[in-house]
Amino acid sequence: MTSLLRLGGGLVRGGQRGTLLGARMLHVSSRVDDIRAAALQKTLTTAPKALVAKEKLVFGHTFSDHMLTVEWTAKGGWEAPQIKEYGPLSLDPSCSVFHYAFECFEGLKAYRDAQGKVRLFRPDKNMERMNHSVERLHLPQFDGEQVIECIKELVRTDERWVPEGRGYSLYIRPTVIATENTLGVHRANSALLYVITSPCGPYFPTGFKAVSLYCDETNVRAWPGGVGNRKMGANYAASVGPQVEAEKKGYQQVLWTIGEDSELMEVGTMNLFVHWRNEAGEEELVTPPLDGTILPGVTRDSVLELARGWGEFKVSERKINMKQIARASDEGRLLEIFGAGTACVVTPVNRIHFKGRDYVVPLDPAHPESQAGPVAGRIYKALMDIQYGDVPSKWSVLVD
């Protein structure tokens, strides 16, 4: 059983509270050229699920009570957004998403601060990147600010699912898929934007611990002129085989490279950072450039801005390869390496296998519990301070 609440219309049934999304009574058409948060309708479950103890949460295995859906057609445009009970989607077997990978997604989180308020971290960057992805797929673009308001209402609706404590959060997964039930590779005439949420703890079961990398010189994650800079499901499906092979060899993640010199790309599903003394003797934090093959990570951008704000060492976006890393390791110039992403935040690296040899990455002896290097540990704390509202920042957006 469900109860209905229509936002912007001022009507609340089923004992649910109202919302500030609609400040006055509005007459809203069911189909519009763009998504409008004021048109959002809610059909709420009357049988909420039992919460899972946060210590038992496994990333991506538990889902909250509701989800957000917005349907689109080329003829009618966007329909009114809907928040309804979490459940299966009804799709025709011929939908182009199943056959031609017309799909993209995002990942962001909601955090509960020390005062019990819920916050999002830089959601505008996720909407910007998602519009970039749907543009490449010729799926419908949308007003990112309006979708953020809809996501806020979804989080408010399922606020009890936002766990307390550092390292815990509500993972938010916006997705856009093509739903046209016709075979043939062509621009889709119907689509669905939906958002689900999942309470979670640390991404890796080991928590904030260093991981080992296997440098894959056979497979390539992305290539110039491809879609490596878009967050599409097809980019991830192809990575599973090499990841399994790396695990069989005793390594936790794949280090993706490209070219004869093994230029660094990404690590697993994270952006990669190298802290070293470069060939010129400069202390430098370097990450591969956004050349079309690298995903423009929100955490990546945050790490760069934080490090540049410190002004303590050189911060660069430029090409760097494994031959340089190997040489720096042999010469004692390698200081630390870490990955960064929404799910994991920051993940230190302790060794890299390259051309039959393991190169050990230094770790900070002052942080034996996490094994993080000094920069990785400092960035991790700075990001967490902002995400959980301990340090004021424009990046932290209150849901209420």
From TrEMBL:
Its cofactor is pyridoxal 5'-phosphate. One of its GO terms (cellular component) is mitochondrion. CDD domains: BCAT_beta_family. The keyword Amino-acid biosynthesis applies. Keywords: Amino-acid biosynthesis, Aminotransferase, Branched-chain amino acid biosynthesis, Pyridoxal phosphate, Transferase. It catalyses: L-valine + 2-oxoglutarate = 3-methyl-2-oxobutanoate + L-glutamate; L-leucine + 2-oxoglutarate = 4-methyl-2-oxopentanoate + L-glutamate; L-isoleucine + 2-oxoglutarate = (S)-3-methyl-2-oxopentanoate + L-glutamate. GO terms for biological process: L-leucine biosynthetic process; L-valine biosynthetic process. Gene3D superfamilies: 3.30.470.10, D-amino Acid Aminotransferase, subunit A, domain 2. The modification N6-(pyridoxal phosphate)lysine is found at K231. Pfam families: Aminotran_4. Belongs to the class-IV pyridoxal-phosphate-dependent aminotransferase family. This is Branched-chain-amino-acid aminotransferase. The gene is BAT2_1.
